[in-house]
Structure formats: C-alpha cells, structure tokens
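Researcher: Let's do a round of design. I'm pasting the structure tokens now; please hold your answer until I've finished.
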C-alpha cells in the first residue's frame, strides 16, 4: 500500500496564512469518485482509509489486473513546506533510481509542481510456479506485469486565490492502467478547485 506523498517524501506541512473568507480545500472523502475513475482508468474506486485529509482509495480491476491504489492529500501549506517536500523528493529519486521532474509552468498546475515516477518489474524475482495467481498489488514472481508508481505534488492557492495549499497524489497501477499525464491533470483539477 502507498502512503501519502508527503509522508514518503518526508514532508512536514507548516501552517499557511489564511485570509478571512478564502476558499479552502474540501475533505478528500467528499471528492466525486466518478470523474477520478474516468481520469485514471482506475476501475471502481473505494475509500479504504482516511487520516486527516489524506485519503487512500483502491480500485478493483478484476482478477487479471493489479488493483490500483490512489492517495490524495489536500492540506493548507506554506511555500517553505512545498520546497522541503520537493527537496525530499529529489533525494528519494536519487536514492531509489526513480525519475524526478518539474511540471511545466505552462500547464498551470498551481504555482509550482513536481513529480516522481518509478516502476516495479518482475525481472529480479524468482520464476512463477505453474498456475500462479496474479497478486493484487504488484509482481511477486517472474514473469508478471510491471507496476507503475506516480507521485505528483503541487503548491499554490486553492482555486487561484484561496488558502495556500500543498496537494499530493500517489498512484500505483499496472503498466497501461494510467499515466503521469493523467495524474498531473488530476492534480491540476484538485488545486484549481475544478474537482471538489
């Protein structure tokens, strides 16, 4: 199971100044799941657990596909918090041989955003026994499909003028069941308030 991108990347949110009457992010548990399911091709999502405003959802893609895991967190946060999380993401990328990048500003995903991607392949694993069942959350023998992991984090003002927020998404799915651009698009819809 995934945990919040903020926790994985070592983030600690510092309180952000909030103007009176400023738009605040919704509870992650109140987000409409239908548009998220369509965006990520995740299968039917179900809320597995909620801690603060961190929600872990799981999608069932049937017995012949890995389940998908989606973590969403929307929290008030300062630019300093975002910078700390980004630096942690850069360190994690070097340590884990993953891919790190900044989201192009022209995509207008908050004020700033970055991503980290990685893959879990079955190549280094022992051979599968005849008739081995496909596990729910990634390969456990070789050959089995690759598990793709995407983390994207943005900082900016909720709905452009509201409370400063850090929004993070962690998504894990079988290769072909989602992509980085889908995760970044979802991040943009969350921080802009289009999806609430």
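Researcher: That's everything. Go ahead.
Model: Designed sequence:
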């Amino acid at each position: 199971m995934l945990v919040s991108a903020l926790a994985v990347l070592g983030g600690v949110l510092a309180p952000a100044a909030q103007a009176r009457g400023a738009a605040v992010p919704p509870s992650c548990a109140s987000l409409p799941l239908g548009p998220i399911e369509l965006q990520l091709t995740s299968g039917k999502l179900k809320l597995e657990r909620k801690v603060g405003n961190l929600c872990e959802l799981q999608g069932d893609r049937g017995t012949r596909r890995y389940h998908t895991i989606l973590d969403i967190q929307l929290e008030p946060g300062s630019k300093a918090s975002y910078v700390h999380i980004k630096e942690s993401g850069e360190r994690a990328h070097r340590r884990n041989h993953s891919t790190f990048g900044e989201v192009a500003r022209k995509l207008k995903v908050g004020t700033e955003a970055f991503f980290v991607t990685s893959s879990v392949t079955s190549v280094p694993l022992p051979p599968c026994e005849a008739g081995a069942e496909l596990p729910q959350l990634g390969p456990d023998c070789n050959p089995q499909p690759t598990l793709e992991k995407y983390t994207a984090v943005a900082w900016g003002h909720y709905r452009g003028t509201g409370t400063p927020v850090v929004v993070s998404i962690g998504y894990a799915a079988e290769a072909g069941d989602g992509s980085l651009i889908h995760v970044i698009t979802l991040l943009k819809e969350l921080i802009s308030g289009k999806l609430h």
